[in-house]
Amino acid sequence: MTIEVRVPPLPESVSDATVLSWHKQPGQSIERDQPLVDLETDKVVLEVPAPASGILGPLQAEEGATVQANSLLVVIEEGKAASEPPAKTRTAVEAAAAAPSRSGEGGPTLTPSVRRLVKELGLDPVKIKGSGKDGRIRKSDVMSYLDSLESESDKDEDLGAFNVVEADTATVGIGDGPRPEQRVPMTRLRQRVAERLVEAQRTAAILTTFNEVDLSQVVALRKRHRDGFEQAHEVRLGFMSFFIKASVEALKRFPVVNASVDGNDIVYHGYYDIGIAVASERGLVVPVLRGCDQLRFADIEKGIAEYGRKAREGQLTYDELTGGTFSISNGGVFGSLLSTPILNPPQSAILGMHKIQERPVVVDGEVVVRPMMYLALSYDHRLIDGRDAVSFLVTIKEHLEDPARLLLQV
After folding, report:
1. Which domains does the chain have, with CATH numbers?
2. Does pTM top 0.70 for this prediction?
3. Residues belonging to the active site
4. Lowest-confidence range among 18-27, 192-201, 264-273?
């Protein structure tokens, strides 16, 4: 019996998708529910599983092809079984690069990408627990191991530690020669990011206001309660939850910052869905943490950690990446001391966080050293006046410098 595999229904507002990669080739066997093909949209990668066991027929869409919803991808001859076709002949160099390796005698199996990542980070792969087949180490296992090291180490006090995801640092090889070049097509996500950034610059009157915040009280509070918090909630107490809570209180006080422009109308939102800008391997994504005014600190930390895991593994859904009334971007994890974040349309404001750095400041007439951070608020001046923008940022500063306000909501 022949089973047709078609492009599944695409998310609303997504007209087509790109065939990213095939997991099986024509003539190969596949089991029901095994990953068959990955489709890339503007926001997410959709994994299409095999609807039945059998043998793959000819591919109807090659990698890189653009497909519409319900387009035919491939057919499966159900119930048939065949030995895998012989692999194509490869050079010795190609075979060595593609083959998994072991870190040492009796060490774990590493794929080339994980081997490179482990080497760059200076980690001992023997200490990393693999979640893949036969204990194979995946990139997400490496990142989880780093998280565990950070939580167990005294370096947890590092003022730059936040629950965010950093991009893969691997660079594209562009060949040899005195002036090498390489032309590669943009991914669908990169194209969409480019469109939205240009749209924001073209349609909004973007201004940025700055302030600085003394995080001494937040740092002390984290240090005092981090162990009890982690034992009670099974999640680390990061900095981001403080910034989200402070932002919610400021948004309540200045609802215009939580609003958006729709034609000649202003839409005021009575809920607080905050997007957290995350740098993933595929590019910038902004998953949305919904109803932040109703969430406890532990709920926020768990939500951020889960989004971080999904971003690393490419499992964010379209619904998790849409909506949002306000966004937060943290360039501090990359060492940024000051920047001007760009709006995420149709939102009207975005908060930029930066590196926490110990600096001398004057307090009560004396010079003291405090952990300081520059804050930036980019906003749409069509909707938000400078007074409201400055006051909004001052409100965030006040709540972070006296975090008891977050509990008392004053």
Report:
1. 2-78 (2.40.50.100), 92-152 (4.10.320.10), 189-408 (3.30.559.10)
2. no
3. 381, 385
4. 192-201
